[in-house]
Structure formats: structure tokens, C-alpha cells
Specification:
Blueprint lengths: L1 E5 L2 E6 L1 H10 L1 E8 L2 E10 L6 E5 L2 E7 H4 L9 E9 L2 E9 L24
Parallel strand pairs: 2-8, 4-6
Antiparallel strand pairs: 1-2, 3-4, 5-6, 7-8
Length: 123
Amino acid sequence: MKIRIKGNSVRIRLSKTEVETLAKQGNIEESTHFPNGAFLYSLKTKNDIDNLSAAITGSTITMYVPESAVADWATNEVVGFDHTLPLGDGDSLYLLLEKDFKCIDAAVTEDQSDNYENPLHTC
């Protein structure tokens, strides 16, 4: 699971295995450790929501995903889901959850063997 945070925007990308795990188990968690603690980010499915939602508790960010949206996500062509969450005072938080595609750039050194084939890749 990869997370990208910029301003009021949170983007999470999932590998094939992670999409399958989310659908089957209803949650995924990842952490980044620092000398004085850890930053955690997680995904949890909920059956009583229609859109992505999020919350922060202490050093943990949780993005909530409609259970119905991910039930067959591993086997369909849907790339991802997004939602702009109103925060009040005219401010908002943009949430994006998507499948992680293999990079076309050959210079990438990370293991991408569990990522989805990039639809822009031509052989």
C-alpha cells in the first residue's frame, strides 16, 4: 500500500494482493516507523457508507471504503474511487483510492510484480 499526501489530498494505491485482501478481510494497515513512534495508515470497509470517508486518530489515518465498492474490485476493470469530503468552513479533503499500475518508465527500481498491468503499456 502506498500513500501520497499533499495539502488536503490523500491518495492510496493498492497492489493486486492488497485489493484482494481488502475485499476478503475488510481492512489493510501499513506503518512507517520513526525514532519516536510510528505513522499508521489503514483502509477499512464499511457497509453503511456510499462514498470514501476518512478520519485521523492520533498518528493513524483511516480511509473508509464502501464495502459494496470493493466486493468485486479485484476482478473488474474499475481503476479506483474518489470523493471530496466536506470539512466545513468551505474546506474539503480529496480522497482517492486506486489500483497500482506497473510503471512504464524502466528506471523504476521498486518491485512491481504484484501491480496491475499498465493500460498505457504497448508491446
